[in-house]
From TrEMBL:
InterPro entries reported for this sequence: Cys_Synth/Cystath_Beta-Synth, TrpB-like_PALP, TrpB-like_PALP_sf
The UniProt record lists the keyword Chloroplast: no
Pfam annotation, one family: PALP
Family to which the UniProt record says this protein belongs: Belongs to the cysteine synthase/cystathionine beta-synthase family.
Superkingdom in the source lineage: Bacteria
UniProt KW Nucleotide-binding keyword: no
Protein name: Cysteine synthase family protein
CDD domains xref list: CBS_like (cd01561)
The protein's required cofactors: pyridoxal 5'-phosphate
Organism: Streptomyces genisteinicus
GO BP term (any one): serine family amino acid metabolic process
SUPFAM superfamilies: Tryptophan synthase beta subunit-like PLP-dependent enzymes (SSF53686)
Keywords: Pyridoxal phosphate
Every Tryptophan synthase beta chain-like PALP domain range: 5-300
Length: 332
């Protein structure tokens, strides 16, 4: 058994401590139980295996990617296990725990300003492209625009959910960045049962919500938020809105409140996007009448965010203390 062979087949648990309408069940797939600690192991393993098969990735070559952290962890893990060099670019808002984990696995980490505009040379995506162009024989996964990203979820995450719950699945709900998870899982589930509803969750400050509802890509929409790994400042080609039925917006406060509930009442210590996903799954659950089953994923663990989401001082310094108000505006 090697590290690749234990990716996927994650447990699916029922969340029972949230208030849901009678007959509505809520399930979460524990993606933080992948060996690299997140849902991204699936996509990276799938893309690298494909590149190896097609001769695009040769022994000892360099893998370059822009990543908010979890893709980097998966690349660093699989590069170490398969003998590749890894160079990862990321915005400076990514937690120190994540950066240190990548360096511990032997990856080289290049930190770029979060505030850099998407078309600027300093933006972490442009930076990865430049390193890739300058490094002979290097391979870039290009996770935002690579159809294999969504295909990884079409071939693994989606089928695993269907195998576990079958036709009982009513809705799949998930936040997204590249869109690989929501696009791949939704496509698979809808192929099995076209009545399955798919809902994308988008942080306030990201462009997807407005794009989906109004067809407008508004740079003024882009604003900082704390939840890591989800939302975007541009449209990823991998995000397939043809399999998405609705997009809901969440705030950091929504996500963090759900994280705290998951930790204290379900015993699940998760990252911010998991909180967002459960917040959204609950919203969807409340729009349904039982019998219904809502499924989501918990993309990564809270261990990487102890100094933020689970630190009372950080929370109150950043406006998430008791009595904090949500700045989400559902009319937008
Ligand atoms: N949650 C976290 C913590 C992530 O790192 C990511 C990937 N950036 C996602 C959710 C979203 O996944 P996807 O890129 O498949 O949309």
């Amino acid at each position: 058994m090697n590290v690749q062979s234990i990716i996927g087949d994650t447990p699916l648990v029922e969340l029972t401590t949230f208030d849901v309408p009678s007959g509505v069940r809520l399930f979460a797939k524990l993606e933080f139980m992948n060996p690299g600690g997140s849902i991204k192991d699936r996509m990276v393993d799938y893309v690298l295996a494909d590149a190896e098969r097609r001769g695009l990735l040769r022994p000892g070559a360099t893998i370059v990617e822009n990543t908010s952290g979890n893709t980097g962890a998966a690349i660093a893990m699989l590069a170490a296990a398969r003998g590749y060099r890894a160079v990862l670019t990321m915005p400076d808002k990514v937690s120190k725990e994540k950066r240190d984990a990548l360096r511990a696995l032997g990856a080289e980490v290049v930190i770029c300003p979060t505030s850099a505009a998407p078309d600027s040379e300093k933006h972490y995506v442009s930076c990865a492209r430049r390193i890739h162009a300058e490094t002979p024989g290097s391979f870039m996964l290009n996770q935002y625009d690579n159809p294999l990203n969504a295909e990884a979820h079409f071939r693994s995450t989606g089928p695993e959910i269907w195998e576990a719950l079958g036709p009982a699945v009513t809705a799949f709900v998930a936040s997204g960045s590249t869109g690989g998870t929501i696009s791949g899982v939704s496509r698979y589930l809808k192929q099995r049962n076209p009545a399955v509803t798919s809902v994308l969750l988008d942080p306030v400050g990201s462009v997807y919500h407005r794009w989906f509802h109004h067809g407008v890509l508004d740079p003024a929409e882009i604003a900082p938020y704390f939840v890591e790994g989800v939302g975007e400042d541009h449209l990823a080609q991998c995000m397939d809105f043809s399999v998405v039925d609705d997009v809901l917006r969440f705030t950091d406060a929504d996500a963090f409140a759900a994280c705290h509930h998951l930790a204290r009442h379900e015993g699940l210590l998760c990252g911010g996007s998991s909180g967002a996903n459960v917040w959204g799954a609950l919203r969807v659950a409340h729009s349904l009448k039982g019998p219904a089953t809502v499924v989501t994923v918990l993309p990564d663990s809270g261990g990487r965010y102890l100094s933020k989401i689970y630190n009372p001082q950080w929370l109150s310094e950043n406006g998430f203390g008791p009595g904090a108000t949500s700045e989400r505006d559902d009319d937008l």
